[in-house]
TrEMBL record:
Official protein name in the record: DDE superfamily endonuclease
Superkingdom of origin: Bacteria
Domain Transposase Helix-turn-helix: 34-83
Keywords: Endonuclease, Hydrolase, Metal-binding, Nuclease
Cofactor: a divalent metal cation
Source species of the chain: Sinosporangium album
Gene Ontology MF: a single term: metal ion binding
Domain DDE Tnp4 residue range list: 104-197
Amino acid sequence: MLFYRAAVDLSRATLNYFAGLLRRRRKAVRSAWRLLNPGRQALLVLAHLRKGETFAELGAGFGVSATTAWRYVEEAVPLLSGRSPKLGLVLRKAGRDGLRYPVLDGTPIRTDRVRADRPYFSVKHRSHGVNVQVIASPEEAQLWTSGALPGGVHDLTAARAWGIPREPGRAGILTLADKAYQGAEGPIATPYKGRGKPDS
């Protein structure tokens, strides 16, 4: 395998914040010695999330096995997702900032095909993957993303699972969406025909 220097377009503050989360978790669980310190683990995970490098590539670059790279990512991702902003808070802040018409759309994220993962096959997109709901500004700046559901889940079902239809009303704003969300309860206007979708 060949090696080269690479960059991740994230700030030093992001790395330090993430490393702090990992450091506190290791202390809380009284973790034994690790091959990588919290800063290097944070960088490995951020490189994986930002650039999609495989565990084998990450392992080679950081001097650990592919299995260890996978373990580091599996340990760290829940720490980040647990600190993601809640939908209600995001929409209320959007309203205070003058954003009255955020856009809701489902984004398919492709995954490898596994025989046992039939629910992850999306007929609409003709591929295996997961369904992630995204709320963005009309200028397509992401405000909030949901967790992942199997790709075969319809957008309206996914929106209901994450409690999306009721939250815009509580925040006093109207959310725009495409025809996939027709029948949603609450202030969701369909169909939406704008300059683009949040995932475009």
